[in-house]
Every structure is written in structure tokens, then in C-alpha cells.
Write a structure and sequence with these properties.
Blueprint: H1 3-13, H2 23-41, H3 52-71, H4 77-101, H5 105-127, H6 145-152, H7 159-184, H8 187-191
Helix pairs in contact: 1-2, 2-5, 2-7, 3-4, 4-5, 4-6, 5-7
Length: 196
Amino acid sequence: MNFNHIVKNFLKKIKFPDGSFDYAKVAVVIIFALYFFSYAIHSETIYNTPNFIDSIINSVNLAIHEAGHACFFFFGNFIYVLGGSLLQVLIPIIFAGYFFIKSENFSGSLLLFWVGQNLINVSVYAGDAVVMQLPLLGGDNSGHDWHYLLSVTGLLDYTKVISGVIYIVGFLLIALATALSFFFARKDNIQNAGQL
């Protein structure tokens, strides 16, 4: 029994019409959804006990985050500090937008998982603004972006609320990515991709 047959039987059991889905794409969606929802659920421990995949994704996200500081260096200290988290979320949005514009809707919807994951990642960093226990790239003396941002704006007392809102948006985006990815994995959407 091959993997495609297993997925097809699974989908029959949950009452999807036979033959209406590209089963390879559905398998990808299931893997993405399992990974990214697990990431969201265990977000408080992603820096303490990262697995191999988390380490790779977090390394890419960290490189983008640090590049954000460099990109926004000339816009004043506040935007410079915000630039790390901002670019970390903007880059996956730009990639997703590119694929949606090109009517590659399945690819675009998969990239929304990355956007949601980055928001979850940013929520963990923002939530650390008061206790400042996360390991920082430049060490303890390098400055904590979110401690600075929330202190300057007078919002440090609202750290948990702000972190929670960012987390909820990220989690909902992962849920939306799951729904859209399943929708765009339908064969009729593949045939009519340019009409959407």
C-alpha cells in the first residue's frame, strides 16, 4: 500500500468526494498543519528544546530578523529595533503575495503557514520583554528588542496582552493556511487556478 493510497482512504473516511483532491498536496497540507500547529502549541519551549526542523526554520527566521535591523538602520532607533520583527513577518508575506498574484494559490497558501509561524515566534519574543530570559544573538548586553519597544511606548505593563494578540493572529493564520491549502488542493482548483 503506497502513501497516496493511505491518504485517499483517509479522505474517504472523512467524507471527501473521491477523486476531488490532489492527494499528494493533501499529504503536504497534513504534514504542514501537524508541524505548524505543534509549533504553535509548544511555542513557549521552541528556544529551550528545538528539534532539527525548528532549528533550521528558526535560523532562517533569525537571519531575516537581523537583516531587518540592517534594512531599517537609517529610520531612527525605534524603527531600527522594530525592523527585525517587522521584516521577519514581511518577508513571508511578500513571498505568499507573490504566489497569490501569480495564481499559484496552493503555494501561496502554504507560505501563509510561515507567516503564522513567524508571528508565533515574534509573540514569544514580545512575551519575554519583562523577564528577558531568552538567549539573544549578541548576548545579554545586546538589548532586548521588545523590552525596548514596549518600554518606549509605555506598554511594558501590557506585555502579556500584546504577546497574546500576536500569538492569536499567528495561530489563526495557521488555521487559515490549513483551510486555504485544503481548498487549493482540490483538483477543480488546480484546473481553474487562473480563474480564482
